[in-house]
Amino acid sequence: MASIPRVARVRATPGFAAPNDVDSKKMSLAKWAIAGVVVGGGIAGLLGAGSSALAAYFARRIITPSVRESDQEVLAVVRGDTGLQVILAATPDTTADGIFSLFFAGGKGFARIGRITSYSPAERTVQREVEEVYSGDLATARRGWWSGAVYDSPAALGLESEDVQIDVDGGKAPAWLVRSEAGKTAKVWAIMVHGRGATRLEGLRSLRIARELGLDSLLISYRNDGLAPSASDGRYGLGSTEWHDVDAAIEYALAQGAHEIVLFGWSMGGAICLQTSDLSRNRHLIRAMVLDAPVIDWVNVLAHHAHINRIPYAVGRYGQLMLGHPLGRRLTGLAAPVDLKAMDWDTRAVELRTPTLVIHSMDDEYVPYGPSASLAGKNPEMVTFEPFHGARHTKEWNVDPEKWEQAVRSWLAPHLQPRSGPPSVDDSQ
User: Which parts of the sequence belong to the Peptidase S9 prolyl oligopeptidase catalytic domain (predicted)?
Assistant: First the structure.
Protein backbone atom coordinates (compact mmCIF):
# COMPACT_ATOMS: atom_id res chain seq x y z
CA MET A 1 0.00 0.00 0.00
CA ALA A 2 1.37 3.40 -0.99
CA SER A 3 1.60 6.01 1.73
CA ILE A 4 0.05 9.43 1.25
CA PRO A 5 3.40 11.31 1.04
CA ARG A 6 4.37 9.30 -2.05
CA VAL A 7 1.68 11.10 -4.04
CA ALA A 8 3.81 14.23 -4.14
CA ARG A 9 6.94 12.29 -4.94
CA VAL A 10 5.82 10.36 -8.01
CA ARG A 11 8.67 10.33 -10.52
CA ALA A 12 7.65 12.56 -13.41
CA THR A 13 7.68 11.53 -17.06
CA PRO A 14 7.06 13.74 -20.13
CA GLY A 15 3.42 14.71 -20.48
CA PHE A 16 2.46 13.28 -17.09
CA ALA A 17 4.79 15.45 -15.05
CA ALA A 18 4.11 16.09 -11.40
CA PRO A 19 3.20 19.75 -10.73
CA ASN A 20 6.10 21.99 -9.79
CA ASP A 21 4.37 24.39 -7.41
CA VAL A 22 4.22 23.63 -3.72
CA ASP A 23 0.48 24.29 -3.47
CA SER A 24 -0.27 21.65 -6.07
CA LYS A 25 1.88 19.16 -4.20
CA LYS A 26 -0.19 19.83 -1.09
CA MET A 27 -3.53 18.95 -2.68
CA SER A 28 -6.40 17.99 -0.42
CA LEU A 29 -5.48 14.32 -0.28
CA ALA A 30 -7.81 13.51 2.59
CA LYS A 31 -10.79 14.86 0.65
CA TRP A 32 -9.84 12.81 -2.41
CA ALA A 33 -9.38 9.68 -0.33
CA ILE A 34 -12.80 10.00 1.30
CA ALA A 35 -14.46 10.71 -2.04
CA GLY A 36 -12.59 7.76 -3.52
CA VAL A 37 -14.12 5.44 -0.94
CA VAL A 38 -17.59 6.74 -1.78
CA VAL A 39 -17.08 6.34 -5.53
CA GLY A 40 -15.24 3.05 -5.56
CA GLY A 41 -16.83 1.41 -2.55
CA GLY A 42 -15.09 -1.83 -1.71
CA ILE A 43 -12.24 -1.30 -4.18
CA ALA A 44 -11.18 1.91 -2.56
CA GLY A 45 -11.58 0.31 0.84
CA LEU A 46 -9.17 -2.42 -0.15
CA LEU A 47 -6.70 0.04 -1.58
CA GLY A 48 -6.77 2.31 1.42
CA ALA A 49 -7.10 6.07 1.69
CA GLY A 50 -3.51 6.80 0.66
CA SER A 51 -3.79 4.68 -2.47
CA SER A 52 -7.14 6.24 -3.32
CA ALA A 53 -5.57 9.67 -3.15
CA LEU A 54 -2.72 8.52 -5.37
CA ALA A 55 -5.18 7.04 -7.88
CA ALA A 56 -7.09 10.33 -7.98
CA TYR A 57 -3.88 12.28 -8.38
CA PHE A 58 -2.80 10.02 -11.28
CA ALA A 59 -6.19 10.36 -12.99
CA ARG A 60 -6.16 14.13 -12.74
CA ARG A 61 -2.64 14.43 -14.13
CA ILE A 62 -3.64 12.44 -17.21
CA ILE A 63 -6.41 14.81 -18.24
CA THR A 64 -5.18 18.17 -16.92
CA PRO A 65 -3.26 20.41 -19.36
CA SER A 66 0.00 21.47 -17.76
CA VAL A 67 3.00 23.66 -18.45
CA ARG A 68 5.89 21.80 -20.02
CA GLU A 69 8.70 20.98 -17.64
CA SER A 70 12.12 22.45 -18.45
CA ASP A 71 13.93 19.18 -17.81
CA GLN A 72 16.84 19.66 -20.24
CA GLU A 73 20.01 21.32 -18.95
CA VAL A 74 21.79 23.79 -21.23
CA LEU A 75 25.46 23.97 -20.26
CA ALA A 76 26.94 26.47 -22.70
CA VAL A 77 26.62 28.14 -26.08
CA VAL A 78 29.82 28.43 -28.08
CA ARG A 79 30.98 29.61 -31.49
CA GLY A 80 32.34 26.69 -33.52
CA ASP A 81 33.91 26.39 -36.96
CA THR A 82 30.51 25.98 -38.58
CA GLY A 83 28.68 28.57 -36.49
CA LEU A 84 26.77 28.59 -33.23
CA GLN A 85 26.78 25.39 -31.17
CA VAL A 86 25.15 24.39 -27.91
CA ILE A 87 26.50 22.08 -25.20
CA LEU A 88 23.80 20.09 -23.46
CA ALA A 89 23.55 17.51 -20.72
CA ALA A 90 23.55 14.14 -22.48
CA THR A 91 20.19 12.35 -22.40
CA PRO A 92 18.58 9.70 -24.60
CA ASP A 93 16.90 12.57 -26.48
CA THR A 94 19.87 14.89 -26.97
CA THR A 95 22.21 12.11 -28.08
CA ALA A 96 19.90 10.89 -30.86
CA ASP A 97 21.00 11.70 -34.40
CA GLY A 98 18.74 14.02 -36.35
CA ILE A 99 17.19 17.46 -36.29
CA PHE A 100 15.33 18.62 -33.19
CA SER A 101 14.47 21.78 -31.31
CA LEU A 102 15.02 23.31 -27.91
CA PHE A 103 12.39 25.47 -26.24
CA PHE A 104 13.73 27.67 -23.46
CA ALA A 105 12.78 30.74 -21.38
CA GLY A 106 9.47 29.13 -20.51
CA GLY A 107 8.70 28.47 -24.15
CA LYS A 108 9.38 32.02 -25.34
CA GLY A 109 12.73 30.95 -26.78
CA PHE A 110 12.88 28.48 -29.67
CA ALA A 111 15.91 27.13 -31.52
CA ARG A 112 16.36 24.43 -34.16
CA ILE A 113 19.18 22.06 -33.19
CA GLY A 114 21.13 20.08 -35.76
CA ARG A 115 23.80 17.40 -35.92
CA ILE A 116 26.04 16.21 -33.10
CA THR A 117 29.59 17.57 -33.30
CA SER A 118 30.96 15.90 -30.18
CA TYR A 119 29.74 13.56 -27.45
CA SER A 120 31.43 12.71 -24.15
CA PRO A 121 29.77 9.80 -22.34
CA ALA A 122 32.23 10.19 -19.48
CA GLU A 123 31.31 13.84 -18.93
CA ARG A 124 27.69 13.20 -19.92
CA THR A 125 27.66 16.10 -22.36
CA VAL A 126 26.84 16.46 -26.02
CA GLN A 127 27.62 19.33 -28.39
CA ARG A 128 25.33 20.06 -31.35
CA GLU A 129 25.02 22.61 -34.12
CA VAL A 130 22.43 25.36 -33.78
CA GLU A 131 20.75 25.69 -37.16
CA GLU A 132 18.38 28.54 -36.36
CA VAL A 133 17.27 30.60 -33.38
CA TYR A 134 13.69 31.64 -34.06
CA SER A 135 13.17 33.58 -30.85
CA GLY A 136 14.87 34.36 -27.54
CA ASP A 137 18.52 34.62 -26.53
CA LEU A 138 19.94 31.10 -26.49
CA ALA A 139 23.15 32.34 -24.82
CA THR A 140 21.20 33.08 -21.64
CA ALA A 141 19.33 29.76 -21.57
CA ARG A 142 20.02 27.44 -18.67
CA ARG A 143 17.19 24.96 -19.02
CA GLY A 144 14.58 24.04 -21.61
CA TRP A 145 12.74 21.13 -23.16
CA TRP A 146 13.54 18.99 -26.17
CA SER A 147 11.03 18.72 -29.00
CA GLY A 148 10.48 17.24 -32.43
CA ALA A 149 8.74 20.40 -33.67
CA VAL A 150 11.59 22.03 -35.58
CA TYR A 151 9.94 24.90 -37.45
CA ASP A 152 8.21 27.96 -36.04
CA SER A 153 5.87 28.57 -38.98
CA PRO A 154 5.26 27.52 -42.59
CA ALA A 155 7.51 30.45 -43.58
CA ALA A 156 10.47 28.62 -41.99
CA LEU A 157 10.05 26.03 -44.75
CA GLY A 158 9.77 28.73 -47.40
CA LEU A 159 6.01 28.22 -47.70
CA GLU A 160 3.26 30.82 -47.80
CA SER A 161 0.30 30.34 -45.49
CA GLU A 162 -3.03 31.90 -44.61
CA ASP A 163 -4.15 32.49 -41.05
CA VAL A 164 -7.70 31.20 -40.80
CA GLN A 165 -10.23 30.78 -38.01
CA ILE A 166 -12.36 27.67 -37.56
CA ASP A 167 -15.66 27.83 -35.70
CA VAL A 168 -15.57 25.44 -32.73
CA ASP A 169 -17.42 25.11 -29.44
CA GLY A 170 -16.68 28.21 -27.40
CA GLY A 171 -15.32 30.40 -30.19
CA LYS A 172 -12.78 30.21 -32.98
CA ALA A 173 -9.69 28.05 -33.29
CA PRO A 174 -6.74 29.48 -35.28
CA ALA A 175 -5.20 27.38 -38.05
CA TRP A 176 -2.68 27.69 -40.84
CA LEU A 177 -3.82 26.94 -44.37
CA VAL A 178 -1.00 26.03 -46.76
CA ARG A 179 -1.96 25.60 -50.41
CA SER A 180 -0.33 22.97 -52.57
CA GLU A 181 -0.60 25.33 -55.52
CA ALA A 182 -0.99 29.10 -55.30
CA GLY A 183 -4.38 30.42 -56.29
CA LYS A 184 -6.02 27.00 -56.49
CA THR A 185 -8.00 24.79 -54.12
CA ALA A 186 -7.06 21.12 -54.02
CA LYS A 187 -9.79 18.49 -54.07
CA VAL A 188 -8.18 16.63 -51.17
CA TRP A 189 -7.03 18.43 -48.03
CA ALA A 190 -4.72 17.24 -45.28
CA ILE A 191 -5.74 18.13 -41.73
CA MET A 192 -2.85 17.97 -39.25
CA VAL A 193 -3.78 17.06 -35.65
CA HIS A 194 -1.07 17.55 -33.02
CA GLY A 195 -0.60 15.58 -29.83
CA ARG A 196 -1.15 16.12 -26.12
CA GLY A 197 0.74 19.13 -24.79
CA ALA A 198 1.91 20.09 -28.29
CA THR A 199 0.69 22.69 -30.79
CA ARG A 200 0.13 22.99 -34.52
CA LEU A 201 3.93 23.37 -34.89
CA GLU A 202 4.09 19.58 -34.70
CA GLY A 203 2.48 19.14 -38.11
CA LEU A 204 4.87 21.42 -39.98
CA ARG A 205 7.23 18.49 -40.60
CA SER A 206 4.65 16.88 -42.91
CA LEU A 207 3.99 19.94 -45.07
CA ARG A 208 6.50 19.22 -47.82
CA ILE A 209 5.26 15.71 -48.54
CA ALA A 210 1.64 16.86 -48.36
CA ARG A 211 2.29 19.57 -50.96
CA GLU A 212 4.23 17.14 -53.14
CA LEU A 213 1.16 14.88 -53.14
CA GLY A 214 -1.07 17.78 -54.15
CA LEU A 215 -2.81 18.30 -50.80
CA ASP A 216 -3.84 21.63 -49.33
CA SER A 217 -2.92 21.47 -45.63
CA LEU A 218 -4.80 22.75 -42.61
CA LEU A 219 -2.75 22.79 -39.41
CA ILE A 220 -5.31 23.14 -36.67
CA SER A 221 -5.55 23.95 -32.99
CA TYR A 222 -8.08 22.31 -30.68
CA ARG A 223 -9.51 22.71 -27.20
CA ASN A 224 -7.07 23.14 -24.31
CA ASP A 225 -3.95 23.48 -26.50
CA GLY A 226 -3.37 27.13 -25.60
CA LEU A 227 -4.57 28.53 -28.95
CA ALA A 228 -8.12 27.24 -29.36
CA PRO A 229 -10.83 27.97 -26.77
CA SER A 230 -10.57 25.82 -23.67
CA ALA A 231 -13.16 23.15 -22.96
CA SER A 232 -15.77 24.06 -20.35
CA ASP A 233 -14.16 21.70 -17.85
CA GLY A 234 -10.58 22.56 -18.86
CA ARG A 235 -9.77 18.85 -19.18
CA TYR A 236 -8.52 16.64 -22.00
CA GLY A 237 -11.01 14.11 -23.30
CA LEU A 238 -8.12 11.99 -24.68
CA GLY A 239 -9.84 12.13 -28.07
CA SER A 240 -13.42 11.62 -26.90
CA THR A 241 -14.17 15.36 -27.05
CA GLU A 242 -11.38 16.81 -29.19
CA TRP A 243 -12.61 15.03 -32.33
CA HIS A 244 -15.43 17.59 -32.54
CA ASP A 245 -12.82 20.27 -33.31
CA VAL A 246 -11.34 18.11 -36.07
CA ASP A 247 -14.84 17.62 -37.43
CA ALA A 248 -15.23 21.40 -37.46
CA ALA A 249 -12.00 21.63 -39.45
CA ILE A 250 -13.39 19.12 -41.95
CA GLU A 251 -16.53 21.25 -42.29
CA TYR A 252 -14.34 24.29 -42.91
CA ALA A 253 -12.35 22.48 -45.59
CA LEU A 254 -15.51 21.28 -47.34
CA ALA A 255 -16.94 24.80 -47.28
CA GLN A 256 -13.74 26.04 -48.94
CA GLY A 257 -14.03 23.56 -51.79
CA ALA A 258 -12.38 20.38 -50.54
CA HIS A 259 -13.98 17.12 -51.65
CA GLU A 260 -12.14 14.69 -49.38
CA ILE A 261 -9.79 14.65 -46.40
CA VAL A 262 -6.60 12.95 -45.26
CA LEU A 263 -6.02 13.08 -41.51
CA PHE A 264 -2.49 13.28 -40.10
CA GLY A 265 -2.21 12.72 -36.35
CA TRP A 266 0.60 12.53 -33.78
CA SER A 267 0.31 10.73 -30.43
CA MET A 268 -3.02 11.75 -28.83
CA GLY A 269 -3.74 13.40 -32.17
CA GLY A 270 -3.81 9.88 -33.58
CA ALA A 271 -6.46 8.90 -31.04
CA ILE A 272 -8.42 12.01 -32.02
CA CYS A 273 -8.21 11.07 -35.71
CA LEU A 274 -9.45 7.56 -34.97
CA GLN A 275 -12.44 8.97 -33.11
CA THR A 276 -13.14 11.35 -35.98
CA SER A 277 -13.07 8.50 -38.50
CA ASP A 278 -15.53 6.61 -36.30
CA LEU A 279 -17.97 9.32 -35.22
CA SER A 280 -17.93 12.18 -37.72
CA ARG A 281 -20.88 12.55 -40.05
CA ASN A 282 -18.23 13.27 -42.70
CA ARG A 283 -16.31 10.05 -42.04
CA HIS A 284 -17.10 8.76 -45.55
CA LEU A 285 -15.05 11.70 -46.89
CA ILE A 286 -11.90 10.73 -44.97
CA ARG A 287 -9.85 9.14 -47.73
CA ALA A 288 -6.99 7.97 -45.49
CA MET A 289 -5.12 8.57 -42.23
CA VAL A 290 -1.40 8.86 -41.48
CA LEU A 291 -0.79 8.34 -37.76
CA ASP A 292 2.59 8.89 -36.09
CA ALA A 293 3.07 7.14 -32.71
CA PRO A 294 -0.69 7.12 -32.14
CA VAL A 295 -2.50 6.14 -28.98
CA ILE A 296 -4.35 3.03 -30.14
CA ASP A 297 -5.35 1.87 -26.65
CA TRP A 298 -5.41 4.30 -23.73
CA VAL A 299 -5.57 1.51 -21.14
CA ASN A 300 -2.22 0.24 -22.43
CA VAL A 301 -0.69 3.73 -22.32
CA LEU A 302 -1.99 4.52 -18.84
CA ALA A 303 -0.80 1.17 -17.49
CA HIS A 304 2.62 1.93 -19.01
CA HIS A 305 2.80 5.32 -17.30
CA ALA A 306 1.64 3.89 -14.00
CA HIS A 307 4.44 1.33 -14.24
CA ILE A 308 7.23 3.79 -15.07
CA ASN A 309 5.98 6.12 -12.32
CA ARG A 310 6.14 3.16 -9.90
CA ILE A 311 2.43 3.30 -9.20
CA PRO A 312 1.05 -0.08 -8.11
CA TYR A 313 -1.07 -1.81 -10.76
CA ALA A 314 -4.24 -1.76 -8.64
CA VAL A 315 -3.84 1.96 -7.97
CA GLY A 316 -3.31 2.74 -11.65
CA ARG A 317 -6.31 0.63 -12.55
CA TYR A 318 -8.43 2.45 -10.00
CA GLY A 319 -7.33 5.76 -11.54
CA GLN A 320 -8.59 4.49 -14.90
CA LEU A 321 -11.93 3.57 -13.33
CA MET A 322 -12.24 7.11 -11.95
CA LEU A 323 -11.91 8.49 -15.49
CA GLY A 324 -14.71 6.30 -16.79
CA HIS A 325 -17.17 6.38 -13.87
CA PRO A 326 -19.86 9.12 -13.72
CA LEU A 327 -19.16 9.70 -10.02
CA GLY A 328 -15.46 10.05 -10.79
CA ARG A 329 -16.14 13.56 -12.07
CA ARG A 330 -15.96 14.80 -8.48
CA LEU A 331 -12.35 13.68 -8.40
CA THR A 332 -11.20 14.37 -11.94
CA GLY A 333 -13.11 17.55 -12.79
CA LEU A 334 -14.33 16.02 -16.06
CA ALA A 335 -17.67 17.24 -17.40
CA ALA A 336 -18.41 13.68 -18.53
CA PRO A 337 -16.71 10.30 -18.10
CA VAL A 338 -14.11 9.20 -20.65
CA ASP A 339 -15.03 5.90 -22.29
CA LEU A 340 -11.63 4.26 -22.61
CA LYS A 341 -13.18 1.08 -24.01
CA ALA A 342 -14.64 2.97 -26.97
CA MET A 343 -11.14 4.24 -27.78
CA ASP A 344 -9.51 0.80 -27.62
CA TRP A 345 -8.77 0.28 -31.32
CA ASP A 346 -6.70 -2.81 -30.65
CA THR A 347 -9.89 -4.54 -29.53
CA ARG A 348 -11.99 -2.76 -32.18
CA ALA A 349 -9.46 -3.37 -34.96
CA VAL A 350 -11.86 -4.91 -37.48
CA GLU A 351 -14.20 -1.91 -37.09
CA LEU A 352 -11.63 0.47 -38.57
CA ARG A 353 -12.62 0.95 -42.21
CA THR A 354 -10.44 3.93 -43.15
CA PRO A 355 -7.11 3.08 -44.84
CA THR A 356 -4.45 3.93 -42.26
CA LEU A 357 -0.67 4.14 -42.21
CA VAL A 358 0.80 3.83 -38.71
CA ILE A 359 4.40 4.99 -38.19
CA HIS A 360 5.81 4.09 -34.79
CA SER A 361 9.27 3.76 -33.27
CA MET A 362 10.00 0.50 -31.51
CA ASP A 363 11.71 2.34 -28.64
CA ASP A 364 8.88 4.80 -27.96
CA GLU A 365 9.17 5.56 -24.26
CA TYR A 366 5.85 7.39 -24.05
CA VAL A 367 3.33 5.43 -26.13
CA PRO A 368 4.33 1.75 -26.50
CA TYR A 369 4.32 0.54 -30.10
CA GLY A 370 2.69 -2.82 -29.31
CA PRO A 371 -0.95 -1.80 -29.95
CA SER A 372 0.05 -0.15 -33.25
CA ALA A 373 1.64 -3.36 -34.50
CA SER A 374 -1.28 -5.38 -33.16
CA LEU A 375 -3.83 -3.18 -34.95
CA ALA A 376 -2.07 -3.75 -38.26
CA GLY A 377 -1.85 -7.49 -37.60
CA LYS A 378 -5.55 -7.75 -36.84
CA ASN A 379 -6.70 -5.56 -39.74
CA PRO A 380 -4.08 -5.82 -42.51
CA GLU A 381 -6.65 -4.88 -45.15
CA MET A 382 -6.92 -1.36 -43.73
CA VAL A 383 -3.79 -0.78 -41.65
CA THR A 384 -0.12 -0.69 -42.64
CA PHE A 385 2.51 -0.57 -39.90
CA GLU A 386 5.85 1.14 -40.61
CA PRO A 387 8.34 0.57 -37.76
CA PHE A 388 11.19 2.95 -36.94
CA HIS A 389 14.13 2.50 -34.58
CA GLY A 390 15.86 4.99 -32.29
CA ALA A 391 13.27 7.75 -32.69
CA ARG A 392 11.55 7.58 -29.30
CA HIS A 393 8.20 9.40 -29.23
CA THR A 394 6.85 11.20 -32.35
CA LYS A 395 10.37 11.92 -33.60
CA GLU A 396 10.47 9.44 -36.48
CA TRP A 397 10.70 12.27 -39.01
CA ASN A 398 13.46 13.93 -37.00
CA VAL A 399 15.82 10.96 -37.02
CA ASP A 400 15.17 10.02 -40.66
CA PRO A 401 13.07 12.52 -42.64
CA GLU A 402 13.80 10.78 -45.93
CA LYS A 403 12.49 7.45 -44.66
CA TRP A 404 9.44 9.10 -43.09
CA GLU A 405 8.53 11.00 -46.23
CA GLN A 406 9.17 8.02 -48.47
CA ALA A 407 6.94 5.84 -46.28
CA VAL A 408 4.14 8.40 -46.51
CA ARG A 409 4.68 8.99 -50.23
CA SER A 410 4.71 5.34 -51.28
CA TRP A 411 1.69 4.43 -49.15
CA LEU A 412 -0.48 7.52 -49.57
CA ALA A 413 -0.03 8.22 -53.29
CA PRO A 414 -1.97 5.11 -54.40
CA HIS A 415 -4.76 5.96 -51.96
CA LEU A 416 -5.12 9.39 -53.58
CA GLN A 417 -5.82 7.99 -57.04
CA PRO A 418 -9.22 9.11 -58.40
CA ARG A 419 -12.11 6.88 -57.39
CA SER A 420 -14.39 5.30 -59.95
CA GLY A 421 -17.44 6.76 -58.18
CA PRO A 422 -18.46 9.11 -55.35
CA PRO A 423 -17.59 8.23 -51.74
CA SER A 424 -20.12 5.87 -50.21
CA VAL A 425 -22.23 6.89 -47.24
CA ASP A 426 -22.95 4.06 -44.80
CA ASP A 427 -26.47 3.37 -43.59
CA SER A 428 -25.68 4.36 -40.01
CA GLN A 429 -25.47 8.06 -40.82
Answer: 234-416
Domain coordinates of the chain in residue numbers?
1-63+298-338, 72-147, 154-297+344-415
d(CA 40, CA 123): 50
pTM of the model: 0.88
Lowest model confidence (mean pLDDT) among 86-95, 263-272, 326-335, 351-360:
326-335
Q: How confident is the model at residue 87 (pLDDT cuts 50, 70, 90)?
A: very high
At residue 38, does pLDDT exceed 90?
Answer: no
Q: How far apart are CA 133 and CA 150, in angstroms?
A: 11
What is the DSSP secondary-structure string of 206-261? GHHHHHHTT-EEEE---TTSSSSPPPTT----TTTTTHHHHHHHHHHHHHTT--EE
CA proximity to 71, closest of 119, 17, 25, 120: 17
Higher pLDDT, 226 or 427: 226
- Alpha carbon distances (Å) from 287 to 180, 219, 257: 17, 18, 16
Over the stretch 285-322, which tens digit does the pLDDT of each residue have? 999 999 999 999 999 999 999 999 999 999 999 999 99
- The answer to whether domain 72-147 has CATH 2.40.30 is yes
- How far apart CA 100 and CA 174 sit, in angstroms, is 25
Q: Which residues contact 4 (CB under 8 A, 6 or more apart)?
A: 29, 33, 49, 50, 53, 54
Answer CATH for 154-297+344-415 from 3.30.300.30, 3.40.630.120, 3.40.50.150, 3.40.50.1820: 3.40.50.1820
